[in-house]
Amino acid sequence: MAAVCMHVRDQLEALVDGELGDERAVEVRGHLADCAVCRAHHAEASSLPSRLAAMSSPEPSPALLGGVLRRVQRQRVGPLGLFGPLAVEVVLSVVALWYVSGINGLSLLVQRTAADVAAMAGWGVGAGDLPDPPAGDVFLLLVCGLLLVTTLYHLSLLSRQGPRLS
Amino acid sequence: MQADQALAALRAHPGDSSGADVLARAARGGDLDAFEALVRRYQRRVYALAYQHLHDPDEAQDLAQEVFVRLFRNLERYDPDRPFEPWFWRLAANVAATYRRQRPASAVELPDIAAAPAGGSEDALPLARALADLSDDLRLPILLHYYLDLPLEEIAGAMGLSLSAVKSRLHRARALLRRLLVED
Hints:
The structure holds 2 protein chains of 2 kinds. Chain A is mainly α. Chain A is 75% helix and 0% strand.
């Protein structure tokens, strides 16, 4: 392909859209008068927008609307499903608070937690025996873990609600 | 109440995008009737976009559903002080691009061109094939502008591009289509 043809073809879309300067448009049209292949490209470029607009698509199936509404409805959670986890969270929080209230002061709680963590770490690196924390601490850990899982699940439910439905 | 107003607005101005704004605001407030009216209003255009993007009626149906489900999930993010359509087409374009990226490679390479609807012109198949050969970032602006007749400014907003970038993509896409069609 001649360099002039390549250059002209690069500008055909701009010519069709009327975005070429007058002088350049005259030059391009002059070349088109002499070059049948570039003329074929120009004809294609000229008809393309209307052909794209006229492309036909089948009609959507009537099931489309029903499918969308079914999927949307599935995402709705009833009041019980939405607020049920709140009751579990409250119970778990009360249990955890009741246990923590039995410990004399926040600093003691932090000290015991730190001691348990340090003992576990020591056991993990082989620097000590497997710690034997009080059963109550294990129970508290379990309650806090359950509370975390329930809260994450609850948050995921709330985030999937989207707009409030009447 | 909101739904009644929205539906009345829609009936009064069926082609008016402000009707869509009213519906979107009502749907955002939790009105399922308004959401249904929005789906009815846009389902043909969304399905047509999906069909021309994928060339598979079943997948197009699936993609169109996905667009509306994502619309529902994201309605709270819609700013009711702004026009609904650019925001909606932005979401639709994103879902369409993501959907195609997640398809198996074989499905992307073998679009169901034979399923082109009857009644299309004789050169519809080469054009559909050429369109399928374009990358998503060139095909979507073409479909949004020439097929769905969205203004360039809306496409720029929908695709997060500048106006000049949209024009440049349209020129590049048309040049590629033209070459594919002439050489076909």
